[in-house]
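Objective 1b: paired records.
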Amino acid sequence: MDREEIIPITSSELGNLWMTYQEKTMMMRFLEYFLEQAEEVEIKHILQLHYERVTECVGVVTDIFKQEGAAIPVGFTEHDVNKGAPKLFDFHYDVMYLHLMSKIETNLYALYSTMSYRKDIRQLFRRLTMEAQEAYDQTTHLLLEKGVLSRPPYVSMPKEVAFVQNKKYLTSLNLLSNERSLNTIELSLIHHAIETNLTGLQLMIGFAQVASDKSVRNHFVQGMELAKKVETSLGEFLRDDFIEPPATHAGKATASTVSPFSDKMMMYNTSLLTTFGLGSNAIGGAFSLRNDLPAKMSLLAKDIYDFAKQSGKIMVKKGWMEEPPQVEDRRKLTKG
């Protein structure tokens, strides 16, 4: 064993490994279901490759927990998936889902790698980041090839360098409007947000159709409305510049009402996507130099935050929120 691997893992490494275990055991269950439903050889190959990688990762994290004398989290098990359930989504949604999750994983594991200090943990998160990027590359290529994914719009190439000369570039008389057209940075962030919401919208529709608990089902319906609101609100910025927002003909929810997944796992997945949405929304607002776009994104961020908060309340009420490892409670320990 490398000498550095004898050093105990830090609190941040423990927390990030714990989060990784939750996300990867969830991905195992989704990929098991999608593999059973997959018909195209190329798609099955991609799903199988990443299922094997996810399984290996869960084994590595489990071994680290055992070496450290830490309890193995529950995460998500075979009881959270009903592999015999009918198709909940039509063609290519399995790849669209992996495409969406690869974006989340790339962000998560790149962040975790910068919060790691022990050599083997750094190497693990670096590898997971690379695997997520490869999943994104493979799914993007396939979805473009199938005509499922919309490329961002093209613009005329700049012929000269320009500098902002007028303060109106940043502000306008009306807080909710702007006289200038979008720049390419703003356009890219809007396109990204709409693209991810299209996949998330269909996920919420499918979840709402099959959830067994009424409060959970109602929550997914709220998620449907929120995803639609985000897509519509941000799409208006594109339409104002005579650009059509991205859309896809594939990956729609079917009419099935038989759940392939437990309510607990669907709620966790929803919470994960909502957290990702909050982060993306914050980045979109921060990098925009128009005042109307950050204003709109701030309003949407509040709605997303409220939805995320409600997700947490439901999960706690149902006993589904597994508690992360805690810092020692010194106040309690010193009471005597």
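Objective 1b, second protein:
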Amino acid sequence: MIRSTAWPADARAVDVGRLTDTAGRPGAARADRLAVARAVASITPPLSAGTAGRAFVTLAAVAAVDVALARTVEPHLDALGILAQAGIDVPDGSTWGVFAAEGPGTRLTATPGSDGSVVLDGTKPWCSLASTLSHALVTAHRGDGRQLFAVDLRQDGVTTHDDAWVARGMPDVPSGPVDFDGVRAAPVGDPGWYLTRPGFAWGGIGVAACWWGGAVGLARVLRDHAAARPDAELLRVALGAVVADLADAEDALADAAARIDADSGASADDVDWALLAQVVRSRVRRAVDAVRTRVIGALGPAPLTSDAAVAARAADLELYVLQDHGDRDLARIGRMVLERGGVAW
């Protein structure tokens, strides 16, 4: 993996091999992956100004080993960072997800309970590993806005739907809907806090770091094939193009990390974090798509049909980058630039 000089020294030295050598390999059980998530969290500080470089490189290093593992680790680390920002303690041994997506025909509502607590009712879509996690941070509609809540998923009234997940990419990271029926929850921040804090944008860049790491792992497959066939000029051409694409994406991530780590508590108005995050995500998405297409095109069908790890990585990565919405997110960048400026040219 190329190490940009823009990464801080402690980030460039990140090595998660000792954690991922024994768990999180392709085909590992969900419990194994969650164990790795807790282990990684024990050595990775919450994402904040000053820790972004290390956090992003850690996520990328995990994804380079196993994309599905990164899909498990990233939301756990994101949730711990959010809870730390809110000043809320985390139960020992807990595992967390972040369920903030909205979908047509579904709505989750928060209402005051009889004992002063908050009660959740309705359905939340796209809830990864909900049947396996102990807790989650969940956004719900409260009045005219949305608010974040911490929920113990082991309560009565929580119904998961793993059977709705039929994906060929990340089949063992089910992300089906969850029904909530009178489920007690605790507020995390005021209404609107979750979506407006700079950390929301920072977490989105962390997801892009996972995409990049997944592409690095796929590029290593190409590198190994090119090394084994020194007479195959087309493999060297493909490898050169992949190196360039990965370097472009890494520069975007490293620059974003440097800007986050340079932030000393300045207000969100000083940097348009939403615009920065979306530009970074779109740059990384383009590079990852190019790498995946180039590697598969150069190697042909053999690795995808005879090597379970390579086939899983390609399918997992193809699905994971769809968290970026392609042209819709590019249109979002255009709208933000027209409304707020934000580009030097």
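DSSP finds twelve helices and seven strands in the chain. The chain has a mean pLDDT of 91.
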